[in-house]
Design a protein that fits this description.
By secondary structure, this protein is α+β, with helices and mostly antiparallel strands. The protein has 3 helices and 4 strands, in the order E-H-E-H-H-E-E. The chain has one domain: Ribosomal Protein S8, Chain: A, domain 1 (2-Layer Sandwich), CATH 3.30.1370.110. It has a 4-stranded mixed β-sheet, with helices on one face. Strand 3 and strand 4 form a beta hairpin.
Length: 84
């Protein structure tokens, strides 16, 4: 199964770039009909993961995907599933 992977480790301290990277990943998944985006905010304090989840909750973004799955085995991963 094709998936898009977005690792936020490199930009975790650059606020605006995080939203841009998330936006690009979601748009690319929609354009290319990729069924899943794996977002890796990393473990850390959990702040970045909260930010990712808040981003995904925005109405304009939320209508683009089917569901969000938090990886039960790895706290530092979030999967966004699409139904194209």
């Amino acid at each position: 199964m094709a998936k898009l992977k977005l690792d936020l480790h490199d930009i975790y301290n650059k606020g605006g770039k995080i939203d841009d990277a998330l936006q690009q990943a979601i748009e690319e998944a929609v354009e290319k009909r990729i069924p899943m985006v794996e977002i890796i905010p990393g473990k850390g304090s959990g702040q970045l993961k909260k930010r990712v989840l808040r981003f995904l909750e925005q109405p304009a973004i939320k209508r683009l995907y089917h569901r969000v799955e938090k990886d039960s085995k790895n706290f530092g991963r979030v999967f966004v599933h699409f139904r194209h």
